[in-house]
Design brief:
The structure is a single chain. By secondary structure, the protein is α/β, with parallel strands linked by helices. It has one domain: TIM Barrel, CATH 3.20.20.140. It is built from six helices and ten strands; from the N terminus they run βαββαββααββαββαβ. Helix 1 (25-34) packs parallel to helix 2.
């Protein structure tokens, strides 16, 4: 906890699933525990960064590969630390990422190849399943911006981004009146120095808790420009 509030990471990647992730899931859990976090949402990449062999679609193989980091993190967490499943989705032939919260193992196992479900189509699926779709680091790939009709909110602070990009994200969220504004570390490496996330008054133990709190706005963003 931090200052009497529960502390959660909602944007991080594991070595087991994301090609860019360089920290094994069990070690990731230990790092976050050592920094006083109460839980994490594992948002591994669901994209060509994970699935190079996407053209030869093998549903069970893709699902197992994507879930590998989350399952290892959950097994390592113990009873006093929350681990939830999310994802950072990028469709085929796209440069734009979308963070998705509320995802379940069953959804991943039964949804086929999500790489070809482009933003608008996936957003309809997300709404039908009660998921939230958040635009992460919207200025990283500027001028390619997330589709406003396909998101519920915006990551206004990302620890990997420059101060300028984060400031632009804040202005973009304000301009378009995006109600859900989050913060995430975008953790990939042991050498990561700036950690962020959200602070809540109540414990998050499930996807339902996470979705409800994000929708309500009853959380604080952790901004670490150190």
């Amino acid at each position: 906890m931090e200052n009497g509030k529960y502390k959660y990471e909602i944007h991080c990647h594991t070595d087991e699933t994301s090609r860019c992730g360089k920290v094994p899931a069990d070690e990731l859990i230990e790092i976050y525990k050592s920094k006083g976090y109460d839980g994490v949402v594992i948002t591994d990449h669901y994209s060509q960064m994970t699935f190079r062999e996407f053209k030869i679609f093998k549903s069970r193989y893709m699902a197992e590969k994507f879930l590998r980091g989350y399952r290892k993190a959950k097994a390592a967490a113990g009873d006093d630390f929350t681990v939830l499943l999310g994802m950072e989705l990028r469709g085929w032939n796209s440069a734009i990422d979308y963070l998705v919260y509320g995802v379940t193992e069953e959804f991943i196992e039964n949804s086929g190849n999500l790489l070809f479900k482009y933003a608008r189509r996936f957003y309809k699926i997300a709404k039908a399943n009660g998921f939230l779709v958040i635009a992460p680091h919207p200025y990283r790939m500027n001028p390619f911006m997330p589709a406003l009709k396909c998101i519920d909110g915006c990551e206004i602070y990302n620890s990997k981004e420059s101060t300028e990009n984060n400031a632009n994200a804040v202005r973009w969220a304000e301009k378009h009146k995006l109600g859900i504004r989050t913060s995430g570390t975008d953790f990939h490496r042991r050498t990561h120095e700036r950690f962020s996330g959200i602070l809540t008054d109540e414990k998050i133990s499930s996807n339902d808790d996470l979705i409800r709190i994000l929708k309500s706005g009853n959380f604080e963003t952790i901004i670490n420009e150190g």
